Amino acid sequence: MADIRLEGVGHSYDGGRTWALKPMTWTWQSSRAYALLGPSGCGKTTLLNIISGLITPTVGRIWFGEREVTGVPTAGRNIAQVFQFPVLYEEMSVYDNLAFPLRNRKFPKKEVDQRVRQVSQLLGLDQVLRRRSRRLDPGRQQIVSLGRGLVRPQVAAVLLDEPLTVVDPALKWTLRSKLKEIHRDTGHTLIYVTHDQTEALTFADEVVVLNDGAIVQAGEPAELFLSPSHEFVGHFIGSPGMNMVPAEIAGGVVRVGAAGVGAAPDGLPPGPVRIGVRPEFVRIAGPGASPGAGATVTGIDRMGAYDLVHTRVGEHPVIVKTEAGSACEPDAAVFLHFPADRTFLFRDEVRCGSL
Ligand code: ATP
């Protein structure tokens, strides 16, 4: 197994007028579990298909270790793929479906049996190995597809494109942790495409966030949550996403309207910025807590496990996530504390400092 390296890889479906994937240079490290996360249409599937060889990129080169594979078709890349919907031989038994990728590559019978039993046990398929695949419900069929993707040792990568879409939500949690277990066992390089942040954050060693055809940030789940380097990551990760308050730097002070919120970081030129702070870190505090701002409560969502207190700083909404049973009432005047180490400034969507 080797790193997968993209050098200036980009793709346009319309002869270069628009780029579904903007030219990028990026390395997928061997044996790591990646989630490729982004909204619909941001280019996730295009990127995955370029790695698998289903699409030849318009520009750039791809390397699997020292071997260049840019023009090599899928069959020559030693890749395993799992798609959104089951891809199975319906008349074959579950066992034969799982064994197929191994038999096809002439693995010894004993090893085939060993691998099939191991994977089927981990995925909870051991009771249905003799059943014909078409007799399973679609969710279970998709688990067999997942097993087929994971059964081969020594693949260059396992590419999974929203593989749990048709699986029952309750079962998704179990499968994600099984997938992690299988990954620990096999050391495959996994690239898992999803638009669902929960899926990405629970599963991956590293989350690669894609927006509008470009990687905006990559990192461990905690890093993306605690330290977003781009407004998009602040919005897209978190529930609800990061509060973004338009502000101005003038005279060494960060201001929302006329009110000073805190000192401007050294060296940041005057001009517009946005203050980004997650609902989890804003505190309702006594007046004068610095940095911070006066606000008015506009409503409260009592979610059971926690409350979401909706406030307004000037005309800008700021949500505060507090313990359940908050004493706040609508229309109350409160003071919000923005902890300096968790409050960032963004300019042109890119982080440019802390408050
Ligand atoms: P989704 O989650 O909805 O599948 P995605 O993030 O996987 O989206 P892609 O399917 O890679 O995104 O699409 C990226 C962009 O390229 C989109 O604007 C899409 O409309 C466009 N696109 C994808 N496939 C084609 C194609 N075969 N021909 C023309 N445009 C395409």
Automatic annotation (TrEMBL):
InterPro entries linked to this entry: AAA+_ATPase, ABC_transporter-like_ATP-bd, ABC_transpr_FbpC, ABC_transpr_MalK/UgpC-like, Mo/tungstate-bd_C_term_dom, NA-bd_OB-fold, P-loop_NTPase, Transp-assoc_OB_typ2
Highest taxon of source: Bacteria
Entry's transmembrane regions: none
Keywords of the record: ATP-binding, Cell membrane, Membrane, Nucleotide-binding, Transport
Every ABC transporter domain range: 4-237
Gene Ontology molecular function terms on file: ABC-type ferric iron transporter activity; ATP binding; ATP hydrolysis activity
GO cellular component, as recorded: ATP-binding cassette (ABC) transporter complex, substrate-binding subunit-containing
Name the record gives this protein: ABC transporter ATP-binding protein
